[in-house]
Amino acid sequence: MAPPRAAFGVTPPGGRSLWPGGAGSTAPLEEASAPVASSLRAVFISDIHLGTPGCQADALLDFLKHHPSDTLYLVGDIVDGWQMRRRWFWPQSHNDVVQKLLRRARKGCRVVFVPGNHDEFARQFDGMHFGGIEVANEAVHTTADGRNLWVIHGDHFDGVIQCAKWLAHVGDWAYGVTLELNRHFNRIRHKLGMPYWSLSQYLKHKVKRAVSHVNDFERAVAAEARERGYHGVVCGHIHRPEMRTIDGTLYANDGDWVESLSALVEHQDGRLELVHWHPMGHGGLTLPLKEPQAVPGVLAPA
Ligand SMILES: [Mn+2]
């Protein structure tokens, strides 16, 4: 049973969507003196990748401050265990995020942690509670208007993205090496009088394939949710925020806090909205604005 498209307001990438009170907000403006925003029914965030330099912890802290909720779902890849095994990186702001999440749980927000592949060490704690945070390998969220949403990280669907898993592991390193190799390769080709072999065309071809793989992933996740009898699915993993209906099943991807800086929120009336965080209007934060990446999770770690 598909909810009508109009039931969820999608904020376009690049559009300002600070909530409440930002331009593009669909919520009525609160009085300027109102100290605390009214609570959202649920907030879904994933792919924070704490423990990596790419994690935009300050942006996330600002987002969390402005988006209180009754329930908070942490939809996997919150802490990057893969990276931390390689190199210890843990600045104060990453600590602040953990403290903020624990404090939120203490203050009565229901916090559900659905581990991802980068924090798969937590999967063994399925069903347990830590500091008020529930660990669940998968969850079901029922919206105010009665839709049952399957909440998963999504990495189990990597099979539909051929090679994505090893590519994710090799990540930036392989990309850098590819560029370097191409430079030497073309110098030799030049010496032999051979034409330049275009890396950009090669990558463009890769990008096209990557886009079709993202589509395969989205369709596979939605199909499985439908198979299991859910109205829709909320996931992360591929760092590509999206909300659309696929063959009658809602597919919602809350994005990430490395590049797209996005979250999925449920308003008190059950309306779902994809929120793209922007630093505008928040004094002091001067992070560069980034468009959602065209090729998430294939050339960069997912
Ligand atoms: Mn992941």
The CATH superfamily title of the domain at 5-25 and 39-155 and 232-276: Metallo-dependent phosphatases
- By DSSP (H or I, 4+ residues per run), the number of helices equals 5
> Largest sheet, described in full?
8 strands, mixed
Structural class: alpha/beta
> Which ligands are bound?
manganese (II) ion
| Helix percentage range | 25-40%
The span between the termini is 31 Å
CATH class of the domain at 5-25 and 39-155 and 232-276: Alpha Beta
**SSE topology string:** EEHEHHEEEEEHHEEEEE
Please tell me what the overall shape is: globular
Number of strands: 13
CATH topology of the domain at 5-25 and 39-155 and 232-276: Purple Acid Phosphatase, chain A, domain 2
- The amount of beta strand, in percent, is 15-25%
CATH architecture of the domain at 5-25 and 39-155 and 232-276: 4-Layer Sandwich
Question: Mean of the pLDDT scores?
Answer: 79
The radius of gyration is: 20 Å
- Give the strand line-up of the largest sheet: 1-13-12-2-3-4-6-5
Low-confidence stretches: 1-36, 281-302
